[in-house]
Amino acid sequence: MHTTGFSQVKRNYHYVFWGRIVLTDKITDKLKWELWLQYRSQNANSQLNIFKEPQFSTVWTWLNYTISPKVKVAVTPFSYFNTWPLYASPTDLEASPVKELRWVIRGEHEHKLKYFQLMNRLGVEYRWRDFNNSDRYVSNYRIRYMLRLEKTVNTGLLSKPITFILNDEVLLQYGDAVKNNASVFDQNRVYLGFNYEVLKNIKFNLGYLYTLQERPSGKEWDHINTLWAIVTFDNVFSQFYSRQKKYNRLQQH
After folding, report:
1. Domains and CATH numbers, the chain
2. How many CB atoms lie within 10 A of CB 44?
3. What are phi and psi of 91, to 5 degrees?
4. pLDDT tens across 8-59, in order?
């Protein structure tokens, strides 16, 4: 952490691990559910141990509907978050996490280009947070826009293709909980990583996420370097139903 003498803007540098487990399955051919279990940890006291202190945990549910091969919409029926402060001073380690309930509606449009798959994603979040752990929740909205590029490559070294991912996401917020903030800008996230199906119905994502986040005063900025790992389990239940149906058909013959 250091302060620039000219602009008097404080810059805090953080190193974070972000883990996510995703469970998903179909309800109908166009409708599926997802459950995200997430945890973030962070360094502290100028150490580079990204597992030193907690920073974030959540249980997040989704319902996803495919309108067409190119257009999808999703909503969050329920989600619960605990968010600890990003460590910038010794007192931050003593702070209790902020409890949050969140509801989201999100739309995605995918387009296949000559060399890449392009995705535009726009989401609106309604956040309801208890900042002081007093059971007094304050609300605000946050708008998120993401531009994402994907490139699937057959390397010849792996049994399955690997997908490389690059995306940029901008987050803006407004409402009662943030009405005194210096601006509507919340953060900008840039991600570079890859996705690989390690086993049937099990995918692994690994990448680097750089986040620039403005604190409410507008005079303090967080520069967050994150190692992000995701494990996705697709067709959690239906894969077993399908196997059982196939087995029953074989038995009948």
Report:
1. 11-252 (2.40.160)
2. 18
3. -70, -20
4. 889 999 999 999 999 999 999 999 999 999 999 999 987 889 999 999 999 9
Instruction: Name residue 22's beta-bridge partners.
Output: 36, 232
Give CA–CA dist 209/166, Å, rounded: 10
The 3-class SS string of the chain reads CEECCCCCCEEEEEEEEEEEEEEEEECCCCEEEEEEEEEEEECCCCCCCCCCEEEEEEEEEEEEEECCCCEEEEECCCEEEEECCCCCCHHHHHCCCEEEEEEEEEEEEEEECCCCEEEEEEEEEEEEEECCCCCCCEEEEEEEEEEEEEEEECCCCCCCCEEEEEEEEEEEEECHHHCCCCCCEEEEEEEEEEEEEEECCEEEEEEEEEEEEECCCCCEEEEEEEEEEEEEECCCCHHHHHHHHHHHHHHHC
Residue 142 one-letter amino acid: R
pLDDT surpassing 70 at residue 250: no
Half-sphere exposure of 93 (CA within 13 A, CB side): 9
Say which residues have a Cβ less than 8 Å from residue 135's Cβ, sequence separation at least 6. none
Residue 120, both tokens: 């535009």
Query: What is the CB-side half-sphere exposure of residue 97 using CA atoms within 13 A?
Result: 15
Residues near 48 by beta carbon (within 8 Å), at least 6 away in sequence: 15
**pLDDT at residue 5, rounded to an integer:** 45
pTM above 0.70, yes or no: yes
